[in-house]
Every structure is written in C-alpha cells, then in structure tokens.
Write a structure and sequence with these properties.
The complex is a heterotetramer, with two copies of chain A and two copies of chain B. By secondary structure, chain A is mainly alpha-helical. In chain A, about 65% of the residues lie in helices and about 0% in strands. Chain A has eleven helices and no strands. Chain A has helices spanning about 1-25, 30-60, 70-75, 85-90, 95-115, 120-150, 155-165, 180-185, 195-210, 235-240, 245. Chain A is globular. Chain B contains 13 helices and two strands, in the order ααααααααααββααα. In chain B, strands 1-2 form a two-stranded antiparallel sheet. In chain B, a hairpin with a 4-residue loop joins β1 (about 250) and β2 (about 255-260). In chain B, α2 (about 30-45) packs antiparallel against α4 and α4 (about 60-85) packs antiparallel against α7. The radius of gyration of chain B is 22 Å and the shape is globular. The interface of B and C includes residues 115, 116, 269 and 277 of B. Chains B, D: InterPro entries: Aromatic_CoA_ox/epox, Ferritin-like, Ferritin-like_SF, PaaA, PaaA_PaaC. Chains B, D: Pfam families: PaaA_PaaC (PF05138). Chains B, D: This is Ring-1,2-phenylacetyl-CoA epoxidase subunit PaaA.
Chain lengths: ~250, ~325, ~250, ~325
C-alpha cells in the first residue's frame, strides 16, 4: 500500500497547506464577509485534509500499532516528505493571488473528486463525494472573484495579470502524474490527472473570457512538489505550523 | 406629538418589556448610547479576532486548528450581526470603521493583551469569553429589538467557545509539567485583565443608572464582576490551577468570594492606548482596511458595470 | 548560581535575538556597504551571545553532565524562558527602525559592559572587555545613521519620528531591574542598570539634537522581556530559528 | 598612435604576462567583454547571497549560524571588489545594478535553484563554490590588473568556503539516517546544475578563442568541467555518498572520469528565465533596491548639507 499512502498524503498535504495559507487571511481580509468566506474555505480544506490523513494513517499503520495519526503525519514530517502541489504553498500575496490560486486549484480539485467518486477505492470515493459539494462552492466563489477583479477597475485588472504571471507556472504540475500516481492509475484507485487538463483549461478559459483575461500560451512549468522538491516557501510554513508538536514531543493537546 | 408624550410611551414599553424597534420613536440619548455600545461591541469582536488568530497557523493539532479557526470565524460573524444591528440606528458600517480606525470608537481593552503561548487560547476562551458571557447574557433581554436578537445568536456561540477554552486548559492540566506550567502562567496573565473587563467600580460608573432604566444594562459592573469571580474561583479548582490573587477567599457571610483590589492604573493605561498591543491591533485592522481598498473599489466598479449592462439589455 | 545563570541568559538571549533580527537584512540591505555593516553587527552580537551562553551552560551544568550547551540553551528553550529585552525582538521594519533599535540598544550595552568590566565576576569582565570594542563601533555606526536620517530628507526625518514612536516604549525595560538582577547587584556581579538611565539618555539626547529629533517625554513603558513575558513576535522568531534542532533532536550539525 | 600600433603593444603586454591597467589603451571589445564578465561575476556574488541567506535564520547551531552569516557577508564583499574592478573600466555601480534589475545583465544560473534543506548549504559550498573556484583560480592570472587582484582576494575566501561546505556535509554523512538522506538528496539536486556552471560545451562556446587570446580565459569550459568532475568524483567517496550519474566511471585511458550527457534543455530554460527561482531572486534584489531608495536619497542629501555647512564655516 505504499503508493496508495503516498497518494493519500499528496491529497492531504495539498489541502492542508492551501487551507493553512487561506487561514492566514483570518482577521485580515479586505471585506468582513470575505474574511468569513476565505476562512470557511480554509476550514473546508483542513477538514478534507483530515479525512485523507486519517485514511493514510490507517493504511500506513503497522498491525497493532497506533503511532501513526493524522497529527503525526501533518506535524512530524519535514518538507522533503511533503507531497503537496507547489501551487498550494505559494504566498497569499494580494487578494488577486489568493482568489486566483483558489480558482485554479478548486477547478482542478473538482475534476479530481468527480473521477475519484468512480474509483475503485470505496473510502476515497466517499471522501470525494462529501468534499465535492464544498469544492463546488469554492469554484463558484473564487470564479466570481476572478471575474469581478478581471472586469473591475484598471488596478484590479492589472493585479489579476500579475497573479496569472505568478501562479501559472505552478499549474502544469497538477496534470503531470508521478510514479505513485501512475501505479494508482493502473490499479484504478488514482485519478488520471493528465486527462483532466483539457476540461480544466476549458473552465479556466471560460472564466478568463468573462473576466477579460487571457490564458497564457505554452509557458514553462515548474514541478517537484509531489516528489518533495518544493519552493523555498514551504520550509518556513512548516517551521511555524509544526513548532508546538516539535517543541513538546509526545504531548496531548 | 410632544417629546414628553413620546418619551412616556417609550418608557412605558420598556417598563412592560416590549422591544423598541428601529422605526419606533426613541430619545436621542438612547439612540446614541446604543450606537456607541453596539458598535463598540462589534469592534471588539473584530479586534478580538487578532489575538486568537495569532495562533491559527501554530495550533498544535489539526483538530485544534479547525476549532480555533471556526471560533475566530464565529467572531467575525458576531461582528457582522452587531454591525447590522447598529446600522438600524442610522449609522453605516463604513462610518463605524472610520471611528474605529481614527481611535474615536473604543473596543474592549482585553484584546490589547498579547497571546504568548498556546495556553492563552484556552485562557481567552475560559476567562475572556466567560467574562463576556456574564456581560452579554443579560443583553439578550435588552430593550432594543435588533440588538437583543443579535445577542441571542452571539451568546449561544459564546458559551460554546467558553466550554472549548475550558476543555483546552483541562487537557493541558492533565498534560506534561511544561504544559501545566504554560497553562498556569497563562491564567496568571489573563486573570486580572478579565476581572477588569466589567469596567470601573459602580461608584465610578456614572451612566449605569440611566442605562438600567432603559434596560440596556440589567446588572451593575460590580454585580457582574462578583458573579464572574464566584464562578471562576470554583472552576479553577477543577483545573487544579490557582488564580493569582492572594486575597481570594470565600466569605461565608456574603456568600461570595472576596477578592483583591484591582489595579485601576493599569486599566486606565490600557484604555488610554498604552497597553502591550494597542498600536499593533489597530495597525493590523487599518492595514487590512487600506490594503483591501482596491478590492472594494473593484467590487463596486464591477457591480455598477453589471447593472449598466443589464439595464442596456433590458432597454434593447 | 540560579540568578547568575538567569542573568547570563538575559544577556545572551538579548544579543542573540538582536543579532538574529539584524541577520534578516543580509542580502536585502539598502546599500551594499551597509548590508555588510549590519551583517557584521549581527555577527558580533551572535559572537557575544555565544560567550554568554557558554558561560551560562558552564554555570548551569550539573557536575559530570554535558547536556547543557550553548545550543541547548539557544535552541531548546521556548519563549516563556527567553529573557531578552523586548526591544531586541521588535521587527526590522524599515532601515530607520533597524538603525534606531541598534543605537538605543548599543548605547545601553556600552554602559553595561563598561560597568561589567569592573564587576566581581572575572569571566563576565573578560567578555565585556572584548565586546565593548565591538559595541563602540556599533554605537558610532548606528549613531551616524540616526543623524543622517534625522537630518536627511523630509521622508527620512518622518521615518525617524515613526521609528521613535514605535521603539521608545521598549527602552524603559533596559533600566528596570528584575529579581535576578537585584540579587546580582547586591552580590556585585550584575550591573546596576537603573544607574545607567541618565548617562544613556544624555547620549541619546546628544545624537537626537544633532539629528533634529526630540526625545519623547515621559511615556508609558512596556516591560516583561526579562521575565519571559514577550511580545507576540518572539514566538514566530523562535519557531523559525529552532526548527531544525527541534525537528531532528539529538543530531550533530 | 594608430589603433593597429596600440593593438600590437596591448597584445604584446598580454603575451608577456604584463597586466593591463585602467589607464592603458585597450581594444573596445576587450573592455566590453571585461565589463560584461566582471559585472556578471559581481551580480552572481550578490544574487548568490540569497539562496544561502535563506538559511541564516534557521541554521541549526550558533556556530553554523555564525559561519553561514560570515560566508554570505563575504560574498557581499566579493561583489564589492568586483563592482570596483568593473568601475575602473568606465561603468558605474548604479549602471550595473540597472542592467541587473532590467534583466539585461546576467548572473550565474546556479542561483536560480532553491535551497530546500540545511544540507543544501553544504552542497552549495562543496559543489557550487567548488565549481566557482575551478573557474576563478585561473582568473587570478587574467590580463586585466584590477580584475586579477580582486580575484586573488575572492579565491582565497572561496576555497575556505568550499572546505566549510564539504565539512558540513561530512558531519551530516556521519549523522542520523535522516541527515544522511537529506545530504544525499541535496547532492542529487545540486550536481547537474553545478556541472552546467562551466557553460556550454566548447564547440558551442564561440567567444572562448578570443578570450583565451586576451588571457581573460585560460582554460576552455570543457577542460574546467572535466577537472571539476574528476575532483568531485573522488571527494564524494570520502563523504560516502554518490553523484547522481549512472555513467560516471573512471576512464583508465583518458585518465579522467567519463560522465553522462548534460541536459542542455534545462540549462537553456533556466538561462532564459525559466528556473525555479529566477523571478524570486530578481524580485528580492529589486525590492531591496526600491525599498532602499529613500535611504540612499537621505544619505546623499545629508552629505550635501554637511558639505554646504562646512563650506559656509570655512567662508566665514
């Protein structure tokens, strides 16, 4: 079950890290209602992460042991073992970057969950079924913001262009399967992400059209997240996130 | 109708426990007192997000992270209800923000203290939310309808938060020596500021009488404070910690706990802006507001464009 | 020797934390020569911290044990046990805040070292003798910058006023002895910091006069650092600084 | 004097290993080549501060923190020497910065890779500084006096840095399994980019011949690269790690290590701006520059005020 565990960790890490990033907005959002909305999405993502971590812990556990838990997986692995998409760990930047990151990600995640519901793994299918409802809302919310900012003021349009420039190189990774995924695709429990690129692009194109924005043409793409090769940002995020678990090992909280 | 007559009808309703509603006549001083109190309360919810928000990224387990995030989000929601209640009195949310950012409007001084350890998340929940509830529960029956209804929703969630805070400390109290030390140290720091949350002593609180007559207030500061001390002095025993007050002692005669003198110099200092985090808290809110200006402008511009386009379509 | 150890930790923590803050500039300074200068000061301060930590470790060690080291003291204590001055942990902000923080601090540190050289503790006296030479340069460098910015452009003057507003509330703590200091003053190994306030103020006044800046009048002062009651900034600093030691316990580096 | 005659004298000096000095006549192409090369080298030192600087606040011991900080500071010093050397050729430091910030001037592509673990600090020291030294030692004897003298100082410190990097990895190699894994993974990431530091293969490097005639360059890219591979292939054995090249093998006949084909697509990608950190590195420098503008302006304004005051005093 090693590739399965890796796959589950990839899903768990990505949702946790993105949830963590979104949660950094809490108390600092540009509009009170949107502060609540982004915190809500953070909560949804952390909730999804917990389901994947719990399942991963169950699968990774040696018979009779109890040392692997959702928290040991989230708090006691270093960056070299984190398998989140690079997109998820990118900084919040301004509101344009945050909502575009969410839209690019949720649009992908929706397609993943859609296929996962049909996969051979019953538990993953159940998680996907629950999570896809939340994701539907995340796409709607972030997509509306993409249009609002793209078609808002000159300033907001400029910031959206900047956000696209910053984030686009991190999208290719979503559709590039690594070894554990390839094995899972063969065995039927992993989503064939390469096949999602066209439908994903269509959805992005549609929103961008409405927003007056252009999808960048064939640009260089950065990968590595799923193999534990991250950007320099993740190390700082984990140092902060894991501090208490590391500083007071073996404690109950 | 003459004002005197209005005033009589108004006070009559209040005496009969009939809610005052936005369109009803009310004395200007009643309106102003409510605006001041509700907006101050709303601001406290919003500023109150910051000290707890400070630990969201460092919560020590996924469960705690989710609980804390949900709690801080609830506070944003409370802010929202309360701003809406205040708006029914004829002040806009932007006006209220401006008063907050300029320093004209106040918020609860308790949020000018820093959260330094994870245990503070527990202490804030137990003591600060605990004190807030003492203040707020009577407000569910206050005479102004929209405010009373908002408070019903707020109180329901607050008492849930307080239990979570207590439970967090309970876990620490059963934990390692480091955890127990962390929790006791946190209680030591938060106790007196929480006791001060009830405001000045009654003899130094001149507006109380009028507010009680209007049923905006139903108990005096000292009555509520005594109740708070009585409850906490018992609860702290369950935690196996102590409150940092050598004078705290059960008084058989009064059937209340006696407690030590409050350091009003500190209280006044913090109110005057000289608390550990006054500047930091207000700066955080002002930054959020300033950095969000372009977002709000874009949203407005887009909404207007849309409206125009729709009008053009309908006209065609 | 408990109060002595606490005193040594107070000195060590303060110089480490300020050195750490200054080191954050490395590679990001406004002028290449000044990037080098601030890094150099950071190095000096970290060097001084090491001497105090090593001495503290020696004093705190149980006979025959070796588990207390400069690194265990720096990396394995949490904020509640750190005794640095609050001034040291304040964020770098802009260049005005950084150089004013240095000037306020070094002006104090110089006076401390001056007295420490005369103290009853031979080892502390030796450290002070070595360190005071470095501190002399730190005062000169930062003092010149105070004057340059105060008497530079309108913008730089405005930023100096802001820096004073931000930092002044953290200066009072330098002259307010806590219990372990009071005991040390009685026993002759701690510096009587209260007596330094006037000479310190004179030095600041002199530089401020030349810079066209005013010393704030009797303002509220924040304390707590020496007792482990810090600002919210220290926790984040330590989470980052201590990450590796915490994540890989018991490793040699 | 005719240019031909000048050119002969110039080349004569070079052939006799006499240094060219700033005031000497030199061909424009020589000057431009040197400006490009020295400023590129200076920029590399400055950009090179960033990947290592990334770990200063997280260095795992006080000793390592001091060593790393001193090293990064040394690089700033190298940048300083080199900018000064370039300035003797008639370009200002501000002009060079502008070329860097606009993307016109290049810097070594190696610094567009991220430092992801503490082991990277070791790998950068061992491999990146190691490759740099291979390139730089011959430059100590290059024909332009100020550049040659700057390089003597640079090389002395660089070889010290390289030893520190190797020693850091050696400690990790003797450490826990996690530390060994961290180190091997780091070597895997840094090996090929380091091999690419020597630039394109000789047959794709058109300027080499002219540069060698001018003694700006003394060995070809491939010669230096081979030397680097030969040295590292031996040193990695001491560490007990491996280099990520299945084709690496001692060739008895050539008395050199054979090694695998280089992925020039990646090399060209990174040079064209598509490396993992190109944008981030340049943004960091531009931000430092932009945020420092008011500081530089204040320093200039103050210096001028002072000068005027002094002049006024002297005139009086």
């Amino acid at each position: 079950s090693q590739p399965l565990v890796q796959y589950l960790l990839h899903l768990a890490d990505t949702t946790l890290i993105l949830g963590h990033r979104n949660s950094e907005w809490c108390g600092h959002g540009p509009i009170l209602e949107q502060d609540i909305a982004i915190s809500n999405i953070a909560l949804d993502l952390i909730g999804q992460a917990r389901m994947f971590y719990q399942y991963a812990a169950e699968k990774a556990q040696q018979p009779g042991a109890t040392d692997i838990t959702e928290d040991s997986l989230a708090y006691l692995r270093d960056g070299i073992d984190f398998k989140n998409l690079l997109l998820a760990e990118q900084q919040n930047g301004d509101w344009a970057i945050t909502i575009l990151r969410q839209f690019l990600y949720s649009s992908w995640q929706y397609l993943v969950y859609e296929q996962m519901q049909q996969g051979t793994d019953v538990q993953m299918a159940a998680i996907a079924e629950k999570a896809i409802k939340e994701t539907t809302y995340h796409i709607k919310w972030s997509g509306e913001w993409v249009i609002r900012l793209g078609d808002g003021t000159e300033e907001s349009h400029k910031r959206m262009l900047h956000a696209i420039e910053v984030l686009w190189p991190f999208t290719g990774e979503m559709f590039t399967p690594v070894d554990f995924e390839k094995e899972g695709i063969q065995q039927g429990w992993a989503v064939d992400v390469a096949s999602l690129q066209q439908p994903w692009l269509q959805r992005i194109q549609q929103a961008f059209d409405e927003a007056g924005l252009s999808v960048p043409q064939s640009q260089w793409q950065q990968t590595g997240g799923k193999k534990g090769v991250h950007t320099e940002l993740l190390g700082f995020l984990l140092a902060e996130m894991q501090h208490l678990q590391r500083a007071y090992p073996g404690s109950e909280w | 109708m003459a004002d005197v007559q209005n005033e009589n009808i108004f006070q009559d309703k209040i005496d009969q426990e009939i809610k005052i509603e936005p369109k009803d006549w009310m004395p200007d001083a009643y309106r102003q007192t409510l605006i001041r109190q509700i907006s101050q309360h709303a601001h406290s919810e919003i500023i109150g997000m910051l000290p707890e928000g400070n630990w969201i990224t460092r919560a020590p387990s996924l469960k705690r992270k989710a609980i804390l995030l949900a709690k801080v989000q609830d506070e944003a929601g409370h802010g929202l209800y309360l701003y809406s209640a205040a708006e029914t009195l004829g002040i806009s949310r932007d006006q209220m923000y401006q008063q907050l950012h300029s320093g004209k409007a106040k918020y609860s001084s308790i949020f000018n203290y820093p959260t330094l350890t994870w245990a503070d998340i527990g202490a804030v929940g137990w003591l600060v939310d605990g004190a807030a509830i003492m203040n707020q529960v009577p407000l569910c029956r206050n005479s102004y309808g929209p405010y009373a209804r908002a408070m019903v929703r707020v109180c329901k969630e607050e008492s849930f938060h307080q239990r979570q805070g207590f439970e967090l400390l309970l876990i620490l109290s059963q934990g390692t020596p480091e955890q127990r030390r962390m929790a006791q140290e946190s209680i030591n720091r938060w106790w007196w500021p929480s006791v001060m949350m009830f405001g000045p002593n009654d003899d130094a609180s001149p507006h109380t009488a009028q507010s009680m007559k209007w049923k905006i207030k139903r108990f005096t500061n000292d009555e509520l404070r005594q109740k708070f001390v009585d409850v906490c002095a018992e609860q702290v025993k369950i935690l196996g910690f102590t409150l940092p007050d050598p004078d705290l002692k059960w008084n058989e005669e009064r059937q209340h706990y006696d407690f030590g003198a409050i350091d009003w110099t500190e209280f006044n200092n913090v109110i005057r802006g000289n608390g550990p985090c006054n500047k930091q808290r207000l700066d955080a809110r002002k930054n959020a507001w300033d950095n969000g200006a372009w977002v709000r402008e874009a949203a407005t511009a887009y909404a207007e464009k849309r409206k125009k386009r729709q009008a053009a379509v309908e006209a065609a």
